[in-house]
Amino acid sequence: MNDKRHAAPGAPPGARATASADAGLRLNLRRLADGDDEGRRDGLLAGTALTRLAGDVVEGPSDVSWAVAARWQPVAGSEPQLWLQLQAQAQVTLSCQRCLQPLVQALEVERDFRFVRDEAEAERLDENADEDVLAMPSGATIDLASLIEDELILALPLVPRHTACPQPLPVPDAAEDGDDEPRQRPFAVLASLKRPGGGSPGEGG
């Protein structure tokens, strides 16, 4: 999958590498994959923390329910690679592009990530991969909140529309620009000229 993103959101220099997602949602991938709980974590992320996503919606987002699972995947002739599965659900309000009324939109993310040695290798492998291929961040620690926000932004519909708009769409008025005179239909005029006795006013018989 080629979305031109080959670097994972990493922890800032000097950040503490933790085995679980703390208040800042810093996640150490290696410790998670090597843990005793099958490499799984889940939690709730405050929607107010997702300022980039908030800038793309009318209202929201709601708090985000998320779950991750990390595992080591054997690779023939090479060292195992670390994979991360991410699931996230949230709700936002958008503007329907048809009726311009509010549209409540559920966002659901289910994505696999494969982490490799560096960005050059990630770019090479990502071209033909179904999963996202990312470079392993420094210290194997990612900013999980940023990764979740990235994926929710990508999940936004390009053209949000109601399946059925809650209000009838406005119908253009037949009399526009103050013209109250009935408009002649060109084919009706042509038909009248073809009738016996038809013709333009002033023509003699």
Describe this protein's structure.
Strands 2-3-4-5-6 form a five-stranded mixed β-sheet. A two-stranded antiparallel sheet has the order 1-7. It has five helices and seven strands, in the order βαβαβββαββαα. By secondary structure, the chain is α+β, with helices and mostly antiparallel strands.
Please describe the topology of this protein.
Elements: E1 26-28, H1 29-33, E2 40-45, H2 51-54, E3 64-75, E4 78-95, E5 102-116, H3 119-126, E6 132-135, E7 141-143, H4 144-154, H5 186-194
Parallel strand pairs: 5-6
Antiparallel strand pairs: 1-7, 2-3, 3-4, 4-5
Global morphology: elongated
The quaternary organization reads as single chain
Count, helices: 5
Q: Runs with pLDDT <50, length 5+?
A: 11-23
Helix content: 10-25%
Strand content: 25-35%
Radius of gyration: 30 Å
* Widest sheet: strand ordering: 2-3-4-5-6
Mean pLDDT: 80
Biggest sheet: strands, sense, closure? 5 strands, mixed
Number of separate strands: 7
Head-to-tail CA distance between termini: 79 Å
Series of H and E elements = EHEHEEEHEEHH
Please tag this protein with its features:
18% helix, 205 residues, two-stranded antiparallel ribbon
Give a short synopsis of this structure.
The chain has helices at 29-33, 51-54, 119-126, 144-154, 186-194, and strands spanning 26-28, 40-45, 64-75, 78-95, 102-116, 132-135, 141-143.
